[in-house]
Each structure stands twice: as C-alpha cells, then as structure tokens.
TrEMBL record:
This is FAD-binding domain-containing protein. GO terms for molecular function: FAD binding; monooxygenase activity. Belongs to the paxM FAD-dependent monooxygenase family. SUPFAM superfamilies: FAD/NAD(P)-binding domain (SSF51905). Gene3D superfamilies: FAD/NAD(P)-binding domain. PANTHER family: MONOOXYGENASE (PTHR13789), PUTATIVE (AFU_ORTHOLOGUE AFUA_6G14510)-RELATED (PTHR13789:SF309). It comes from Chytriomyces confervae. The keyword Coiled coil does not apply.
Length: 470
C-alpha cells in the first residue's frame, strides 16, 4: 500500500486535535499539510447525542484568535450562564455568583468581551463547529475511522549529509500508512501516542466516582415557587445524606444538562450513550433515589424524560512532567493531562495547549517562502522544535497541573461533605463568604484569567534571541 506524507499528523480529532489543526493553519501557515486521524466514524460528529460541555473565557479566547467567526458560531450554538448558584438538594440557596466576573476585563476601562462569558453547549454541536471550521482550510484534512495503536507508531532518523531529521511512520488499523515530520498526540485519556512515548506510565485509575450525565428538554417554568429556573444559570447542588452532588446547566432549545456524581465502588468502563432500555432503567433508579433523599422536584425533573444518558466512570492519572521526549512528537489535551470534571477546565486546558503550541511553532519554526513565490515549495525548518517542546512544557505543565489539581480538590471536598455535618456546614459557610466577598468562587478565577498568548511572549522573550528562528 502506498504511503502518504503529512507535514503534521494529529492523532485524535476531538477538541484538542481539531483546535490544534485550525490554530496551526491560522497562526503558522496555511501551506503546512495537516492531517487529523480520528478513530470514530464521520457520521458520529453530526449525531445529536451525548452530553454537553461548559466553555470558559480562557478557551474561548483561543477560538476567537483563530477566527472570530468560529467563536461566534460556538456562541450561537451554546447558551451563556446568567449566574452560578450553589444550592442544597431541597432547593434552598447557599450563594449566587456573577458570571460576568469570570470574563477577564480590559485593563484600561474595565470592559469585557461578552462572547467570552461561560456557556453551555452540546458536545456534538461544539465538535461539529470545530470540524466545520477545519474545512475552511484547504491544507487540513480530517480522516475518519483511522485508529492507531501504540505498535503502529515508529520513529526513524533520516540522515542527509550532515543533517538528520526525524520521520514518524504511522500505520492505522485499516492498514493505511502515513509518514509525518511532526506528530501531535491528541488521542485522549487512553492515548496510544502517550503509551508509545512513555510506555512506563501507569494506566488511568478509577476514582471511585461515576457520573451520570443526561440531557433533557424542560420548558421554562412558570411556577412562582421556583425562584431561580434552571434555564438561567449553572447550578451546583449537593446532598449531605445521599453523598450525591450534581451540576446542572442550561442549553439552547430549552435543554438542560445534568451531571450527577455518585460514589460507586465498582469501575464502570463505559463512556458512551446508554441504549433505550438502560437509559430508562438508570433514569427511573435516579428518580427513586433523589425523591427518597428529598431532592427538590426541580432537580428530579430532568430524569423524568431524558433525551440521552451517558455513564462515565471518572478516571485519573498521575500528571506527566514531560509531554514529549525531546523529538518531534508531543502530547496535548487529555492525552497529556486527563482531568476530573468538577471545575469544567479539562477541555479548556486542551484548547490552551493547542493555542500555545501553534504560537510557539509560528515563532520558532516559521514557514519561509521560497524565493519570490510565497506559494512555492514548503521551506520548513524544524531544527528549533526542541525549543518549542521545552517552552511548551515550561508554559503548560505547571499551569495544567495547578488548574486540574484544583478540580480534584473541589471533587474531594464535595464528597467529604456527606461524611460530616460539621464539615458540610463549614463548606457552605465558606462558599457563602467567598462569593459574598469576591462575587464568584475564587477557585474558578485560576482557570479563566489566563492569556495563553502573553505566556508565549514571555517564554520566548525569556528564552533569548538565540532560540528564535527569523
Ligand atoms: C463528565 C465530564 C464532563 C466534562 N465537562 C467539561 C466541561 O464542562 N468543560 C471542560 O472544559 N471540560 C470538561 N470535561 C473534560 C473534557 O471532556 C476533556 O478534557 C476534553 O474532551 C479533552 O479533549 P481531548 O481532545 O484532549 O480528548 P478527547 O475529547 O477524548 O478526544 C480524543 C479524540 O481522539 C480519538 N482517539 C482516541 N484514541 C484514538 C486512536 N488510538 N486513534 C485515533 N483516534 C483516537 C477519540 O475518538 C477522540 O475523538 C468533562 C469530562 C467529563 C468526563
């Protein structure tokens, strides 16, 4: 079978992979041939299934820098949260945060870009918007049903006179082969690229918590006894007695996304939509449990007739200190740093990774036009790529570790609330105080107040001019 050649091969066409492809086309060059290899069927990208995802300013800003139109499409497919509310399972309120405070302000006049306000969006709509955007770039090709395994990856060094370059040979499950000069491993929590680079790292371990995620259509309430309809903001609901805690947020078309976190000793391997019978059984069990524990009917409602239910056994992994081995293969997104989802920053970190990588490549490995003809053959010198990976790790590893650690902390605190009424009281009081003082929960600020472009500028300046290819 003939072997095709890519300048960049991105393994995994999820959030990290698709954003990285568009960011490279925008920031580095529209002449680099970027091939994205995704194991799923193309049709699965347009299926109105699955759950939803919350997007925050730090990730939305990367999309804006790729193309305003991309940001606007994403905003039009999602729904911004008016506020952030912490409530007890019986419906009583603990605190209300202002979501506009989660959008970085302009230093000069305090104004902000309202498109960066946190929003909820169906995951399939978000992925479709990212995929459609790649079609604007003739140099990006997304291949579906291309699964690679660890043993399908091989790296060789080719020498030409005094210079040598790394070439990556990729062989997919369907037998097709590609070679690439650069490989980005964006293949998620069970990454095969990570297994190839770091075969010694441990597999992700089940955290003891399972999430049931459902999307249901709920027309806005006209019940005057419900002071804050779910359709307005993101809600965090907790129960001290059942040990469940939940997150609910509104979506367009009167849909509500609900994630309920349930301590479960066994390890469900599922990540996927349940079939109709499983979904019905899970939803009925959930309704019975919530009612028995005295949950307010507003929070029970999404489980009465959900459109889709997904079960996810949350897994965690020790953070890696290196995301590459110094060559021309690097990890990004969940492949490098799988999150637990209590702070809604996993995908945002993946998007930041993509933005940082693209800008570093732009500065350190620019594509030069050949002679007068800017459309001539690609002259792409990757000799500074080691500096790209060094600065990439310098910018990203600590940042991701810190943000994603705060997600673990938040999850553990929520679980502990069920163990002690005193701890729960302290926790509620602390949320109330922090929101009263700061307008929103400060732990959220660490994630959203971040400029990936400034971090790249600082790192490049700090690295000195010797490292900059001009
Ligand atoms: C319940 C839950 C709720 C969450 N909510 C949020 C939220 O609100 N906000 C947020 O920011 N984050 C959230 N996250 C985290 C977020 O989903 C992930 O961090 C994000 O999806 C990571 O993107 P990724 O592209 O790195 O990985 P993925 O989204 O996993 O994409 C990886 C892609 O690679 C493909 N792939 C895998 N293996 C191979 C292979 N061998 N060959 C080819 N292709 C392959 C997969 O099919 C997939 O398309 C949540 C996570 C969970 C579990």
């Amino acid at each position: 079978m003939p072997t095709d050649t890519a300048d960049i091969a991105i393994i995994g066409g999820g959030i990290a992979g698709l954003v990285a492809a568009s960011a490279i086309a925008k920031h580095v060059s529209s002449r680099i041939r970027v091939h994205v290899f995704e194991q799923s069927r193309q049709a699965s990208f347009g299926e109105s299934t699955g759950g939803a995802i919350g997007l925050y300013a730090n990730g939305l800003a990367v999309l804006r820098d790729i193309d305003n139109e991309l940001l606007e499409t994403v905003c039009s497919q999602g729904l911004p949260y008016a506020n952030r509310r912490w409530r007890r399972h019986d419906g009583t309120e603990i605190a209300v945060g202002d979501e506009t405070l989660l959008v970085p302000r302009n230093d000069d006049n305090g104004s902000f870009d309202p498109r960066l306000q946190p929003l909820g969006i169906r995951r399939w709509r978000f992925l479709s918007a990212l995929l459609d955007h790649t079609k604007k770039h003739a140099n990006i090709e997304v291949h579906f049903e291309k699964r690679i395994a660890q043993d399908g990856i091989q790296t060789v060094t080719e020498t030409n006179g005094s210079s040598s370059i790394q070439i990556h040979k990729l062989k997919f499950k369907d037998g097709t082969e590609f070679t690439a000069r650069l490989v980005l491993g964006a293949d998620g929590v069970k990454s095969q690229v990570r297994a190839f680079l770091f075969p010694e790292t441990k597999q992700p371990e089940y955290t003891g918590v399972t999430t049931l995620m459902a999307v249901a259509r709920i027309p806005p309430t006209t019940d005057p006894s419900e002071p804050e309809p779910l359709s307005r903001g993101i809600h965090f609901i907790s129960s001290r007695t059942s040990k469940f805690h939940a997150c609910m947020y509104p979506l367009p078309n009167d849909e509500i996304n609900v994630q309920i976190y349930i301590p479960t000793p066994e390890n469900p391997e599922t990540w996927g939509k349940l079939d109709a019978d499983e979904m019905k059984a899970e939803a009925e069990t959930m309704v019975a449990k919530l009612r028995a524990d005295g949950w307010n009917e507003t929070f029970v409602q999404p489980w009465l007739k959900p459109d889709s239910v997904i079960r996810v056994g949350l897994r965690a992994r020790e953070p890696l200190e290196k995301w590459s081995k110094g060559g021309t293969m690097v990890l990004l997104g969940d492949a490098a740093h799988p999150p637990v989802p209590y702070i809604g920053q996993g995908a945002m970190q993946a998007i930041e990774d993509a933005g940082v990588l693209a800008l570093l490549i732009k500065h350190l490995c620019p594509v030069k036009p050949t002679g007068k003809d800017t459309d001539g053959p690609l002259d792409w010198d990757l000799s500074h790529f080691e500096t790209v990976t060094r600065l990439y790790e310098q910018i990203r590893v600590e940042r991701c570790t810190q943000v994603l650690k705060s997600s673990h902390v938040l999850g553990e605190m929520n679980q502990r609330r069920a163990d002690s009424w005193f701890y729960n009281l302290q926790y509620e009081w602390s949320i109330w105080m922090q929101v009263l003082a700061g307008g929103n929960l400060p732990i959220m600020l660490k994630g959203v107040y971040y400029s990936y472009a400034e971090e790249v500028d600082k790192a490049i300046t700090g690295a000195g001019s010797d490292n900059i290819a001009v």
